[in-house]
Amino acid sequence: MQQIRAIVGTQWGDEGKGKIVDFLAKEADVVVRAQGGNNAGHTVEAFGKVFKLHLIPSGILYKDKLNIIGNGVVIDPESLIQEIENLEKEGISTENLKISDRAHLVMPYHKILDEEQERLRGEESLGTTKRGIGPAYADKTERTNLRVCDMLDEEEFIQKLRNVYERKNQILTHVYHKTPMKFGELLEQFMKYGEILKPYIIDTIKLLNDSIKAGKKVLLEGAQATMLDLDYGTYPYVTSSHPTVGGFCIGAGIAPKYIQEVIGVVKAYTTRVGKGPFPTELLDEIGDNIREKGREYGTTTGRPRRCGWLDLVVVRYAVLINGIDKIALTKLDTLSGLPKIKVCRAYKYEGKILELFPASLRVAMECEPVYEEFEGWSEEEIKAAKEYDQLPRSAKRYIEFIEKETGAKVFLIGTGPAREDIIIKD
Ligand code: GDP
Ligand code: IMO
Ligand code: MG
Prior knowledge:
Bound molecules: guanosine-5'-diphosphate, 6-O-phosphoryl inosine monophosphate, magnesium ion
Strand content: 15-25%
Largest sheet: 10 strands, mixed
Structural class: alpha/beta
Distance between the termini: 13 Å
């Protein structure tokens, strides 16, 4: 394998990145999360158990892999401690977990503000995960946020909290009519978190770059996906980080020139949680059928995911932005049993054909997908296939069409949720 690989979501998230990272981690030494926070929910099924990871990289199930939470991640320490405890309880060691001292903190007021801002937006709400992600990144760019290293230095923490505390309390009480926070309680809470997390906290930039120099193999694990990117996604229905390869370099402290291979994770159909345009959405029985069969309910919030046909305008756009070399196609099994399967290869808008995703939300909402129709395949046919050649001809046609339209080769095919439900294609 290439020494440094990035794994990126190509749609609106939940493509199955966790499972693919877990699979590829077998051959890697280091797995890094570089952006997002516990808005992510990455599922890995292994040892007959289901693990739901939010902040911890999906390489954690292997004893000998280094797992890094990079500087670009926003960390809610309460949630992270909970996640560590849950894994330890399941017998999974977190000894090889390292947390960047530069990562930003999600503070309790960020969570309240996320919730209240959503409420105030009413009909216009974004459908966030309410984990405080947007407000935390907003404070980061506003240059008023607290960072992981501050939890290890009481004086520094007091000074930084003092700078924001009054203003946050005024917003909480005057704008949102909430009870004010107590300085002493916040301080005590975060000093305790600092104490618990101290063994994990280091300069991960040095650690990662030393590992690269020593020839270690690295996976950069994307959270969220290209269409949720602050710049490239369906703004404002996006997340507040850059879940694209450029964002991984910033969020891990790795120079772009080191990334040798980019893998795009593509679900065999499309899902989206939260609001925003979704040109191939199925609001009918087929959509419901896919939701039930694919168990399309949010890993983080439990919300039903909106389901629709595979949209190659979206995937083509993700290939372009991230420089995707290869595709890991997941959940092909979920489409089994459908007599006909549609794939969107372009949009039609005011008589024009669009092959890349438009900037305007109105255009995205009003455009009409141009579909190609494929014959379906049966559940048994997919389950029986252990190699590419054993897949039904109709499924191979579907895969070849994706390759032709996106210009990227499919090299992994997911045929079920478990670790071993995967086909490798050369
Ligand atoms: P992530 O956020 O991209 O890691 O994806 P999620 O974990 O939120 O959602 C993907 C869901 O699909 C999880 O429940 C996975 O266990 C499951 N999954 C992943 N790959 C496959 C596959 O090939 N087939 C089936 N049936 N399920 C899969
Ligand atoms: P993984 O890593 C799917 C969505 C939310 C909402 C928007 C903004 O599991 O693929 P936020 O809380 O980030 O401010 O919400 O982004 N969203 C995700 N959707 N998968 C995710 O992560 C997501 N993380 C955020 O539903 O529409
Ligand atoms: Mg998810």
